[in-house]
Task: structure prediction
Amino acid sequence: MTPHTARHRTSGDLIASIAGRVPTRNLHSQVLWLLGVAIVGGDYPEGSILPADAELLQRFGVSRTVLREALKTLAAKGMIEARARIGTRVLPRRRWNLFDADVLSWHFETGPDVDFLASLSEIRIGVELESAALAATRRSDDQAQALIACAQRMGEATSAEEFARTDLEFHRTVAEASGNPFMASISTLVELALTAAFTISSPIKDPAAMSATVKAHGRIAEAIAAGDADEARMAMKAVITVGLDRQLKRLADDQAASA
Result:
């Protein structure tokens, strides 16, 4: 497959759309996407040597400059390493920058496993619980009202993408209300986790799950508005763990259906 044929809507396109970004369409980004997905998906396993430049140039139909830039980008993400007289080796996964938006998107494009989803939720718990607690003590009145209004709009969403965008806005606002610039920065990971999870499962098609999700976010908003840090932590943990359970159930159902 060349980058010119990669015109289907990838999870990366969907994630970018939900997050309010325009997906890049240049040759560099297309080659980068195809190589990144191939590495994460195991087509080029850890420790293996990538095909020679001549083979990759023929496969993708791009210039040497485009290919080299894509390889440099993968190296910067900790995924590959070029060595003289050896070639370009795929590095162990422990070296990969899993906080990188592209790397996360490639995992969701290839189909994340249970362990990956669980690890991602654990990171969210480590970050978002304290973010919610800080927001309860530092939020402005406008931010408190914005969270309450956002939770209400989640219940009014008429499409899965609209619901996901509103959900994302809610968690962004919590991070901003924490008053900690590092929390706001780390929220990029949360953004990817939320929008990518949408590609697996959305509660909007299940009225009971939809109602419970909206209520759970309302609980977070009310706790933050009331200045109750402990309740904000518990409410945020409930949202994250229930979301993970929903994703794992969807994966299990898909596996059962394909068995």
